[in-house]
Amino acid sequence: MEKDVYILAIESSCDETAAAVVKNGREVLSNVIYSQIALHTEYGGVVPEIASRKHIEKINQVIEQALVDADRKLGDMTAIAVTYGPGLVGALLVGVSTAKAISFASGIPLVGVHHIEGHISANFIENKDLEPPFICLVVSGGHSHLVVVKDYGEYEIIGRTRDDAAGEAFDKVARAIGLGYPGGPKIDRVSKEGNPEAIHFPRAKVGDAEYDFSFSGLKSAVLNYLNSCQMKGEEINVADVAASFQKAVVDVLVEHSMDAVRKYHYKKFAIAGGVASNSSLREAFENACRKEGIEFYHPSPVYCTDNAAMIGAAAYYEYQKGMRHGLDLNAVPNLRLGERV
Ligand code: KG4
Ligand code: ZN
Q1: Ligand 1: distance of its center to the CA of 183 in Å?
Q2: Ligand found nearest the CA of 140
């Protein structure tokens, strides 16, 4: 019988300090997340320097808690996994340095993980039957990728955003309509009170690349709409603007994804990343996949936004392939998916 693989995973690429213990890639024994959101709210977005400092303050505590919650000791761990890119360089460095120090002191092997590979792998946690190949839409604060997951750790990006990421668009529009940071969950909530057909915002097409996205035109259309209302002295219905904007984003994401599903003939489709926790997006994909006759996979909201359990899931498959990193592992802020350093 094969020995169980226990991974202590660490994630600090943005504004969540997180650690988790994951058994055999799919069983989460603990998942501790210290969210810095409240700290950054007064600045209207993540302040990198503040994020790094808070990571330093919290990381040891979060790791210790992850071991306690899992009822395991450091010595029980098979590998130490850490996100080494992409992300904010100072924030990444805190996790990478901590993981290297733990690996050096304990002699437990180190496995560096790509953050987006983590988001995609979040789908393995609750969907025990999900195996590649499948298509995955990754929509987070920094990324919007349509990815063919050919095998564990093997990806082909077939679509990407030309400008703003989907989450970034949510955050910017939320700020413009006075909802504040973080925009995604607030727009999600307010939209439930609004009419998604009230205002028709554009659904951008990117001419030469079938699956690419563009959200900056949509963001400008919302800003123009707000300005013109203001100039005419008309009152703005925040819920209607939020719902109409959200519908425009969801329509484009669903349309591109289903086009890809049809072309590539995969029978499985998954979503990942912070925006994947959006209730309207989930419902739209549920319906679209049912219509296409394909299986739809999505992580629970807690595994959509940044967490370390997803890093532990991704690390398991990297570890099984023989991936090990040395103490020269560095933070790579613009690491590409599928690239191994
Ligand atoms: O994956 P994530 O936690 O961090 C990155 O890797 O970027 O994603 C954060 C993004 C933010 O832009 C946030 O506004 C968005 O995900 N988000 C949402 C929702 N929850 C988080 N967007 C739309 N609806 C939500 N419910
Ligand atoms: Zn993320």
Answers
A1: 8
A2: 1
